[in-house]
Design a protein that fits this description.
By secondary structure, the protein is α+β, with helices and mostly antiparallel strands. It contains four helices and seven strands. Strands 1, 2, 3, 4, 5, 6 and 7 form a seven-stranded antiparallel sheet that branches. The longest helix is centred in the C-terminal third of the chain and has 42 residues. The chain is globular and about 65 Å long.
């Protein structure tokens, strides 16, 4: 894994970060402030990004590449859509990671360590918390919509199977 330093003068890098929905509201100075708590990682194929069972205060955004989501060494999903958020549940509930995320091909991810919020005070803490709470509720709303669609699809499959005459 290679860490890429944030350069506010790198217009391509700034544009790729601002393409992440959570970062769109940020302007130049605010983006630079947030990026003080962030790292940009370039991973080779088959590198672990998150390890099941570990705990940390980082959430991730896939900038490019393809990732494998594995639970107990079984692939349950892949992530390849740019700007996909992952690892946020470990930040929200501080429980150990429920899956391992491994690269399937070279990938770039942005990680954001939100443990810094514990050190903030006053208005700065309230502003940062509001930003992250908004980000979390947008992420969780999207995940809930996807889950509801998945459940509806499974219900439809169940109904079809139940109506089939299997003799």
């Amino acid at each position: 894994m290679k860490i890429i330093p944030f350069d506010p003068n790198d217009t391509d890098l700034v544009a790729s970060i601002l393409a992440i929905p959570a970062f769109r509201p940020l302007g130049g100075d605010r983006l630079a402030d947030v990026m003080k708590m962030a790292l940009i990682h370039d991973y080779e194929k088959r590198e672990e990004v998150i390890t099941q069972g570990e705990t940390d205060q980082r959430m991730f955004f896939l900038m490019s590449g393809k990732l494998s989501v594995r639970v107990d060494d079984i692939e349950i999903n892949t992530l390849d859509k740019p700007n996909t958020v992952f690892g946020e549940m470990g930040v929200i509930d501080t429980a150990p990671r429920s899956a391992t995320i491994m690269t399937r091909r070279p990938s770039r991810c942005l990680s954001l360590d939100i443990s810094f919020m514990d050190r903030l005070e006053g208005r700065a803490k309230l502003a940062v918390q509001a930003f992250f709470y908004k980000m979390f509720y947008e992420i969780l709303s999207e995940r809930l919509r996807e889950t509801n669609e998945h459940i509806a699809d499974l219900d439809m499959q169940k109904m079809v199977l139940e109506t089939m005459d299997i003799d």
